[in-house]
User: Fold this.
Amino acid sequence: MITAIDFGCHEIRSAFRSPKDDKIVNLYTERAEYAVLPAEDRYRQILADKKIPYAECEQSLVVFGNRAEQVRWLSRKPCAPLFADGKIPTVDAPARQILSVLTKAILPPLKPENGSQFCCFSAPGNRSNAGNSEFLSRLIRMHGYIPVECSAGHAVTLATGNETRFSGITILIGADSSQVSISRFGRELASESINVGANWIDNELAEQFKLRTWDESGECYPDFSAIREWKHDPKIHLRNGFSEQEKSLSRLYGVVLTRVARCLKGLLQSSSALKASKERLTVVCAGGATQVGGFAAALTERFVEQDIAGNMVSVRIANDPVTAVVRGLLIQGELEQRRVSDSSVAA
Amino acid sequence: MQFGVQAMDRLLKLSLMLTALVLAGNADAQDAALYTVAGDVPKAETIPFDPVSHVYVLDLIEHSGLVAPEGNALILRGNPLQAVFSDNLRPQMTGRGSRLMPGDVVVFRSLTSEPMGANNLVMVTDGVPQVIPLNADDTVLLRDVTYQFPEHLYDFSVTQTTFGSARAVAKAPNDRLLHGDVIQVRSRTSSNEPRISSVSHSSNSYGFPDSAGSLTGSTETVPAKTASLNSESVLTIPAYSNDVPSESSNNLLELPTVGEMELLPAGSAVASSTLPTNNKDPFQQVSFPGDASDDSFVILDSADEAVQEASTGAALWNGVFILGLVFALGLIAVGWVKTQNERKAEQELAAKARATKLANSKIREQDAPVVRRNETPLPPPQKRHTEVASPLVSNASESKNKPLEHLVLGAEESPILSTGGAEFNKSQDVPVSLKSEDLLTAQLLSATAVQFSEVPETADSDSQSVRPAKALVNEHEWFGGEWLKSETATIPGSIVVEGNREVVVGAADLSEVAAQVDEVDSTAVSADIAATDTETVAETELQLPPSECWSDLDDLLQNRLPMQLLQADLPLKITLFGKPTGPQRLRIDSAHTQIAPPHMSMWAKSSKRAQPVAAATKSVTPAKESVVASRRTSIDSGASDANRFDRALNFLEEQADT
Assistant:
């Protein structure tokens, strides 16, 4: 069974065709974070009563995945990310083990009759981080699948490029990093990663507006969950901000988009993308951060500032900006299976 | 000869004059930056601003007479005009909206029902905007506005604006124009066609033909309907009858012809109508034939010898220049030939290497009868990832309908396929006979056409990428045993897709994967050789997959498959090794702890305390002063009780004094 896993810094998603019906894609989505509770019997009792999966660690209880957000109020501590700074945790042993548990849970059971064992995945952050790729590859291999790594930008091209003959520019704004990719007829000509994403915006907002939360012992934490909840308000618009917080959000998005536009300008001038830059390209944006109102207009404004708007035909948000990566990975996996079967026929 | 030189001289003067005119025009344009506001505003017009000042949307709209606007301002910019911003304006907004650039066109759409000015549209001719008010019944056709621009010389594009958006629409000359439309007129050639800016400056009122005037062939100018809109660049459009032939309207506009703009020699009052128009000699038209006694002609006659000398010198220089050019071309040709030879030699060397490797390959040994076995075997090629992959989809127009079939078959972009010269024909059920070299090429050109490199050993080949992952997992972690087992387990290697390349990394069972890799690697090498025409491979029959198998992927590509969200089945209780680090804490400075002695603040307090003590000792005896001094020293070295003791002593001394 061909499976795709998008290891995002905010959520981990896996997709595969339903074993019962090929016309349905099964999707698992788990938050890439965990909540820490004190190792007390009353908390154990609550978790057991509510049938919430948890893990027992040294002096603490850990609830991970989607349930973490539900129980974090018990300790009043915010959730901790599994991929801190977009990297595999090196000092957080439970986080690594939680990654293994989640990977196993979102992979379909491996059966011989299911055919191919390809698991196409994208690692968080940029692809230059070989540690991430190696760890996740071995994690997938440990569960019996053949890992096939693919860049998230290329996956978005596959998922959204049907109408543009898989040519154009893909911009993926992730939680911890952003990726810009230029493709022509399905071939990735140039790509680059920027180490800023939506988390940087949240961090800056929390710092500027002193959005903090305290736990029982008086420790202070930035209140990211409140910021994310506020950002998901459909009334928020980057172009028509009235409150100071909205204006700050618009400014911070502007900083990120300026970097993206500058990076894209450099890519368009590079020799590898010379063939594509002669044509006017379609820009497709994906990622959770692109769902805010006015994103396309703000990006267009930055393109005009960088004097590259003439190279673009249009700027649009993907129809499924959140699941585009995992769908593209699934496409990549199915293409890979066809390639292998064709090569076996040829042999 | 004399006549030609004369004509050239006149042409030179003419070009200088035109250049001066263009520069002067640019200088005028630089004096003021033009901004255009149209739409639901009381006074739609093109407004000049100081080029160094910053102009915002609200400035422009307020300048047009609308205070505290409520609506949407659409900003069009560039050439061709494109909507770049859309500002929602409200009366209570504090900002001034988006900043504008010179040449911007702002179309405002109001949300209120206040009476505005006449309906209008904007026509931009070669970058010069003009506001054209519409008549009351809005029955203005496109040809009414653009009749003075011949269709074979100008391109027209109409941008229809609505509330917050704009889209380009294709309109025929007989289509009606709407309020807020933006028409862009661009000349197809950069010839000396008259620009609308010069036309508008030539007359204050500019008329469109009405039926009577056009029928009589007379030129009539209709004044603008509203005086407030009657600026130099404002055109008014009266009702237009469809019966009027469009050709007759050309008479209405008396455009300055090229001949009128030329420099005329002094004293020669040659009317433009007298210029020859059907003369075959192009120079004759601009040479202003006149009397032989024309002053300029006389001057040229006297300077004939000098001109001849100059032409001889010029011919010499021309010859030198041509010789130099030929020499440079020769150098380029020699360099090109040398490069070709070098490339050819490199290709031959590479082909020999590949052929040698192919000869050693078990799989391709039987199918490769023509291999240069006489050549000295070269060492096997190093690991390399050649970018021979092809695009996913071909450039064919039908690829939009059947994108997946082109993933395998379409390879118009591929240089390999073109050199291979194979023709891929595919029907749904009929098996296709292909040469195996073409098949191999097609494999390379498939969606993830890749080359597998040799399998690097995980622990040795890429220590930088493997060691951290190894070192990460502690053996005490609950899955540590499985993790360590996975190092030696028989699991195929993982594949890293980089664009269209793949590299096999981290395989445990090297023998199994190595066989697979050798197979694919030899496939890739064979394709390279096929591309260089150094090998002949036997034909094989291929049963291509039917198109039905692509339809599933087609649904996935077009996002037609529904996604069913499932809940992951996590274990209810597990035990994990280690202590979680938890969320990131903010470092807030805590209160200062007790400062270690000596406490400088205590000294400051004691010095303050010392003053009243000193004042009290003014009346005491020297013996008492020594006592006080001794007490002071005790204060300096004592604790907080010393202050209290000192105070008590002062009290006693005061009582003793009284």
Remarks:
- The longest strand of chain A covers residues 187-194.
